[in-house]
Amino acid sequence: MTYARWLADRRATWSWSASWGLPLLIMVGAGLWAVVGSMFRELTTNLGSRILAVVIVAPVVEEIMKVSLPMMVVETRPYFFKSGLQIALAALAGGFAFGVLENLVYLNVYIENPSDTIRWIRWTFCLGGHIAWSSIAGIGVWRMWRHSMNTGARPDMTIAAPWLMTAMIFHGLYNAGAIYYSMR
Q1: Helix, strand, or coil here: 66?
Q2: pLDDT tens per residue across span 111-133
Q3: What is the per-residue pLDDT across 30-73, written as a single tens digit (0 to 9) for each?
Q4: Domain boundary assignment for the chain
Q5: Largest pairwise CA distance in the chain
Q6: For residue 155, which phi and psi values (nearest 5 degrees)?
Q7: 98 and which of 30, 34, 135, 142 could share a cystine (Cβ 3.0–4.6 Å)?
Q8: Long-range contacts formed by 4-10: CB under 8 A, 24+ apart
Q9: pTM for the whole thing?
């Protein structure tokens, strides 16, 4: 059986109602999964420059982790998704959940007595950034899925990679700017 035939058979047996259960689970789990990746990132900060970790390692790890669950589904069971909207919502939810969890940690653990300004920045720019960056990465996952659905070919990570890298670059630039302004 070819991949295209396998995919067509699976798509025919997977209902629209069933296709919403998994994205909902992914939406809940994506942010938590990204936090696991962030913990790994925290372990690596002692291995080298803190600035390098914040500007390069954090964006790479976090952006991959925020969309890794929908990406794994697209790579292994693309028929679970019936619509690109499901992938977009999973990516948005991953960014939102991660941003909220990160803010809770920063504002309650890392920053002692954060000012109202710091709280405002974290809940607007930081949270908004995580949502935007995971949305960009999610476009790549969606495009990879769409290509597979349209052609019957196996999902191709090279289609998603430019979008993931763009999200990582924007995230890194944001972090670099935050470091620069915090040192002034």
Answers
A1: helix
A2: 999 999 999 999 999 999 999 99
A3: 766 766 666 665 555 554 577 788 888 889 989 998 999 999 99
A4: 3-182
A5: 62
A6: -55, 140
A7: 34
A8: 4/151, 4/152, 4/153, 5/152, 7/78, 7/79, 7/148, 7/149, 7/152, 8/152, 10/77, 10/79
A9: 0.88
